[in-house]
C-alpha cells in the first residue's frame, strides 16, 4: 500500500515519544511528487517565455521550489508529496510542526541539489537526519493515519 510504513524500522525520540522514521523510499517518493508539481510545469512555461535563458529559468524554478516547500511545511510539516508518502517534518524537541524559521532553514539548505542533504542523511544511521534537518532542529517521520500520537504525527484523512 502506498505510504505504508513498517513499525519495525528505525525510530527516534521526538519530544517525549518514540516515533517511526520516514523510510528512504517515502522520502524519495515525496521529493519526486513535489518536483513534478512545481518544477516540471514551471520549467516548461518559463523556458517557453524566456527561451535561451537557461540559468535564469533554473534560478526562478529553484526559488519557486523553496517558497513551495516553505509555505507547505510551516504549519503542517507536509507538502502534497509528503502527504502522499505519509511522511512529515516535525520539530525534534516537541514533535510539533516546524514553524517559519525552521521551515525556512530546512527549505533553503535542503534544496540546492536535493542530493547533498539526502546523502548526509544516509550516513546518520540512527535518525537519518541530513545537515539541513540538524541545523533546523527537525526530523522526517512516518506519519500516523489514525489514532492518538503524542508526537503530533497524525495526518487526517
UniProtKB/TrEMBL annotation:
It comes from the Bacteria. Residues 22-137 form the RDD domain. It is a multi-pass membrane protein. InterPro entries: Pra-immunoreactive, RDD. It holds the Pfam family RDD. The keyword Transmembrane helix applies. The chain crosses the membrane at residues 28-48, 54-78. It is found in: Cell membrane. The keyword DNA-binding does not apply. Its main location: membrane. Keywords: Cell membrane, Membrane, Transmembrane, Transmembrane helix. One of its GO terms (cellular component) is plasma membrane. This is Uncharacterized membrane protein YckC, RDD family. It comes from Kibdelosporangium aridum.
Amino acid at each position: 500500500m502506498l505510504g505504508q510504513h513498517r513499525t519495525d524500522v528505525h525510530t527516534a525520540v521526538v519530544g517525549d515519544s518514540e516515533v517511526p522514521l520516514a523510510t528512504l523510499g517515502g522520502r524519495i517518493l515525496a521529493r519526486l511528487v513535489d518536483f513534478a508539481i512545481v518544477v516540471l510545469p514551471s520549467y516548461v512555461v518559463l523556458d517557453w517565455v524566456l527561451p535561451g535563458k537557461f540559468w535564469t529559468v533554473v534560478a526562478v524554478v529553484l526559488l519557486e521550489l523553496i517558497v513551495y516547500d516553505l509555505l507547505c511545511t510551516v504549519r503542517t510539516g507536509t507538502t502534497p508529496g509528503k502527504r502522499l508518502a505519509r511522511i512529515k517534518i516535525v520539530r525534534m524537541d516537541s514533535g510539533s510542526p516546524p514553524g517559519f524559521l525552521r521551515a525556512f532553514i530546512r527549505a533553503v539548505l535542503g534544496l540546492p541539489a536535493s542530493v547533498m542533504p539526502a546523502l548526509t542523511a544516509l550516513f546518520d544511521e540512527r535518525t537519518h537526519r541530513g545537515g539541513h534537518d540538524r541545523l533546523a532542529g527537525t526530523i522526517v517521520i512516518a506519519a500516523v493515519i489514525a489514532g492518538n500520537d503524542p508526537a503530533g504525527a497524525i495526518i487526517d484523512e
